[in-house]
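Appendix B. Chain record.
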Amino acid sequence: MYEKLAEYYDMFMDDVPYGAWVSYIRKFLPNAGRGRDVGCGTGKFTIPLSRHGYEITGSDVSEQMLALANENARREGASVLFIRQDATELCDTRPLDFITANCDVVNYLRRPVDFFTKAYKSLKKGGVLVFDISTEYKLKNVLGNNVFTQTEGDVTYVWENFYSSKSKKVDMRLTFFERLPNNYYTKSIDEQTQYAHSEKSIIEQLEKAGFTDIKAYGFLSENAPKDKEERIHFVAYKTGE
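Structure tokens predicted for this chain:
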């Protein structure tokens, strides 16, 4: 996963409102402290959070994404540690003040409770987990069984999605065509799977992991999610221990 997409990720994600998203996340974080950005990708959230004074580490399973994150940090003059670690194997040398997992990280997990349990154990008392999911509605009705295409410069992608109501997942196949100087094209394919999780299911799994103070919000909102919401933010505090 992300072996080839990593190369083009920032190019095709330039319409994401990263600035507003980072500002939104900060509303739920402490004013300072140690944190982890799980599924950090190319560092689009990790690097800005570090610039706001947080001691933050980015982690991801993709070596290609981490290489780009390090490159982006060097380019921006940011001192950020990036490590290779699966979300379900989350651990740190010391308890964390906060953990973030942005832009669909939890959708890639069949059993989010495994990640939530690790996050709960990794947080200090009073620490907070902030993450989001693409909703069931989005995966089934917006992405599911649809095809998208886009061209940026010499690169074109074709994004095919296949939704299964039985398993509540969407299999994604991204085919990239890159034009070379001699007008020949290279073709590469990246395949991924995202799982649909309901708001109720996520809250139940957070509670099973130990979280008790849990809030759900619409995208970049402090209001409850609306019908046909495409993205939901969750904020869960560790009040025990």
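Further analysis of this model is presented in Appendix C.
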